Every structure is written in C-alpha cells, then in structure tokens.
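Input set for joint prediction.
Command: fold jointly, output tokens.
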Amino acid sequence: MVLAVLLAWPVPILLAGAKWPPRAPGLALALWQSIALAGGVSMIGSLLVFGLIPFGATPVSALGALAGHVVAGTLPAGATLAGVMALCLALILATHLLLNLSATFIRAERQRRRHHTLIGLLSDPLPFDTEGTRVIDHAAPIAYCLPGGTRSATVLSRGLLHLLDADQLRGVVAHERAHLRQQHHVVLLAFKSWHSALPWFPIANRAENAVALLVEMMADDQARLAVDDRTLARAIALVGTAHLAEVSGTQSPLAAAGGFDDASSSDLVGPRVSRLLGDVPGLSPAARTLVLSATVVLVVLPLALLLTT
Amino acid sequence: MGSLGVLERLLMDILWSANRPLTANELRDALLDPAGTGAKPLATTTVLTVLSRLEGKGFVTRDRDSRPHGYTAVSSRAQHTAELMHEVLGTTTDRTATLARFIGNVSPQEAQTLRALLESIGPSPE
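tokens >
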C-alpha cells in the first residue's frame, strides 16, 4: 500500500524533475515503464490483499477460497463492507485499465490503416530512396513516421524539402527511422492509454510528457550517428521556428485550429536542441547500474510483496 | 501497396484531374494509355472492383441516376492532403498518437527561444 502511494506521487515527481534523464534517455524510459507497471500492480494488488484478508491466510489460498464463496454466494465470517468494496474496486480498476489499453490500440490501428491508404494515394516515393521514404505535397514543413510492419513509412512534406539542406534531411530521416526501428509508438500509446484511463491522475500526464521527450532524445541519438550534432540541432530549430512563422499567417492549419494544446507542446523541442549543443556526458557506469537495478526492483518488488504477505 | 493499391492510385489520379464524372469504361480507356507505360489492358470488371473499393473507403461517389454510372472523386487531392496534415499536426479532435513527429507543436515562446538558439549555432558551415 505504501509502495502504491509512493509510486503514484513522490517518485514520478522526482523523476520528472531529475536532471540525469537526458544523459541516458533509454534507461530513463525503462524506469518510467517499470514505475507505471509497478504502480498499477501495487495499486490493484494492495486493494486485493486488503479485501482478501478475511478469506485466507495468504493471498493465493484466499483467492481459492474467494472463488468458492462467489460460487456459493456466501461471505466468510469477518468479511466487512470495506473489504468487499476493495475487492470490487481492484476488479474495476484492472478491467478499466486493460479495456482502455486495448481500445486505444484498436483505435490507433484503425487510424493508421486509413492513414496508410491516404498516404499511398497522395504521396510519392522520394527519388533514389529505397527505404520507404515518401513525399507529400504540402507547404508546411512536416516530417513523421507511420509504423505498420513492412509498410512502415517515413513521410516528408514538400515544405520540409524546401526548408532543409541534404545533410539536415538525412538527420531527420535517421531520426524518424529510429522511431520506427525502436517501436516508440507502442510505448507512447501505452502511456497515452494510461493517461486517458486515469485523466484525474496528474502523474499520468507528467509521465506521458516525460516519455514523449525521452523517445525524441533516443531518436536524436540515433540521428547523431548519421549527421553531426550541430546539423541536427539546426534542423530541429529550423523546423521549430518555421512552425512559428506559419502561426502568424492566417491560413495556417495550426492557427486555424485555434491555438495550441498546452499539454502537448510542453517544451519538447528546446531541451532537445540544448542537449545537442551542450556537452552532455553519458551517465557513469555506476549510475547506469543503479538505475537499471532500480528498474528491475520496481517490477519485482510489488509482485514479491503480493505473494508473500 | 499491392497491385490493387497501384490501381486505386491510378484511378484516383485520373478522377482528380477530371472535371466531370467518368464512367468505368472511360476510366478503363484512360488507363489503357497512361503515358506509354505499356500496361496490359484491364477488364472493365476490374475497374469496377477497384471503384467499389474506393467508394467503400469514401474516396469516390457514384451517380446512380445516370446510365452507365458516373464516378467522381469526393474531395480534391489538395483537400485530402490538408485533411491528412491536420491529422498529423494534431489539430483534429481525435488525434493519432502513433505518428511520432519530428517536431511537435511549438508554442510562440518556445519558438523565440529556438530562434535565439539558431542564431547562436551560426550559419551553415558551407
């Protein structure tokens, strides 16, 4: 129970404010995932354990007893209203989270399929490119990737081709391919689902933003292998400021939508550029080991606690 | 994109550049001579199959009052592109989180910061 509260509140705030994640985005991402997982397991688990106390000495034997009581429609001696409510709450919470997760993935898959169809009809392959890069005829400088197994595509707009030079474009394409290769959309979707399942939970929002930034940094790190840091930083800054120029025009799609979604635009770009320009050293091996073990402990601990109480 | 996808694309290109409804036969004839690519002749039934797929996806409407049916693109190429880019830019209500974008929405303040950073990077090495 204590663990559930800790994971729900102080731990994510600490991590969201920590300075080290830009130095090891991959590790930080793993840590966020284990926090989310452990948080869910311990929240549901503590309710379950509390509700199961009257049914048996250990949660495992109590679960068996519970099944018997449910079938028989009886309650054991010592069952309290609070206990039964805790059980129901655990059940509702678990179902809610799982249903929301599958709904999010199904909806995303449907949108993605339609998007693939439209991209097939509207865009052209980039000349001299063999890896599924496509160009769409639109003035705004846009680059994104569309996951989909063998049909995965990186889409660049005509506006982007005009804005950036060849080296900068190489950086952008390397960045998008890294997203596809490392399956970042799966992580992003999982955190999006968590957030939409628990909208009143301020931490979920924080986690979604932190994860979005970490994923971009990981892709940047891959792009740095293809082009030098300053080229990549310049590409990011150019595209970022081009969006601003577009906002001042009345016809821009961004302005037409009536401004910005503050939650989604919370500083995802500035930290990336300063990270590329500044000399950011990697984490020391000791610190990496520490983070890694924290990640493992977080996943194992709630399960161990559940099975031993 | 499979062979049906290629046909869908060819048909849409013809319909987008046409300024009136086209029949399946007219479309087949237009496909016969696609700028000398040497494609093999298609059966009208194949064209009809692809057209009904496109109709099912909401890209094409069919005028059922005329004989033979005339087919029109629902919206122009530019409209479809704009719709798609709105989706990518996250300006539609039901936003696809699956599209990892190179640069997300940038607030005006942030863009100012970026502009300053851009100047500090200096001009291109060339």
